[in-house]
Write a structure and sequence with these properties.
The protein has one domain. Helix content is about 65%, strand content about 0%. The protein is built from 3 helices and no strands.
Length: about 100
């Protein structure tokens, strides 16, 4: 009885799920976007999605920086209004400074 060798199963790579996005444009908007897409040699869909993705990344980055700036400002103001007591290294540095100036 001859045994049949099974060929290895090919793994199928799952495709990324595609979502649909619809937008209504007036004639001027469509012409403007189509012209820009044509200039770049891209489809209107590709142009719009790429532009929207770039704008979304910029918006998120700008907001993240603004939030970090607010937190950093609050931390700075807190440090100014409620300074920590000087530690031994700072005290030694102050003594050295005063001694160097002859005070």
């Amino acid at each position: 009885m001859a045994t049949m060798m099974k060929s290895p199963r090919k793994r199928s790579v799952p495709k990324a799920k595609a979502f649909r996005f619809d937008a209504r444009l007036n004639e001027d908007q469509k012409r403007l976007i189509q012209r820009a897409a044509d200039i770049e040699g891209r489809t209107m869909t590709d142009f719009v999605l790429s532009s929207a993705e770039s704008a979304a990344e910029r918006t998120i980055e700008e907001r993240a920086m603004l939030i970090m700036t607010v937190r950093e400002t609050e931390s700075f103001v807190d440090a100014i209004l409620n300074p920590a007591e000087p530690g031994p290294v700072l005290r030694a540095a102050a003594r050295h400074y005063k001694k160097a100036l002859g005070r």
